[in-house]
Every structure is written in C-alpha cells, then in structure tokens.
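pasting for ref
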Amino acid sequence: MKLVSRAVAEMLIVKREHVGLIFIDDEDADGKDIVDDLEKDMYAIEEEELTLVQIDDPEFAEELGLHLPSLVHFTNEIPNVYKGSMEDKDQVMKWLV
C-alpha cells in the first residue's frame, strides 16, 4: 500500500469515486501493523474499485478531527470516518467493502 503525500491524497479524492485514506504515524508500530494486516486482503479491496493508500500527515488528520491511526472512506469527495477499532481487521474490512 502506497504512502502518499497530502497533495496526492487530495488529488485522488477529487479524481476517484472511492478512496480510503489510512492516517498513520509512520513512526508508530501499531499503524504499520494495521497497514500490514490490510495489505494481506488488498485483492478484496481492489475488487471494490477502492483506492486505498496510507498517509502520514498529522496536520491533515487534525483538520479532519482524527486521531492516529484512523481510516476515512471518501465517496465522491464526501468523507466517512471509521469509528471502530483499527486493530480489528475483520471489522475494518467489512466496513471498507
């Protein structure tokens, strides 16, 4: 899963119908573990035509009212924040797809 800049994330949100942003602190092992777990199921995510990327931008996360790690699914530029535990990969996957 690609780590992208804010500029790339914002471009994806505008150009793609479905974009998932995983906001992480790249220095935090928990965030990396979450990304590693989700990467194992990327085939299911890709089947849903969802672009899923990670972003390490605490300022952007704060502007959206997020704590790290967090997941936001944008549909036609409208954000929907995942409210469950990021450590529960099965629930995250159900929510994403």
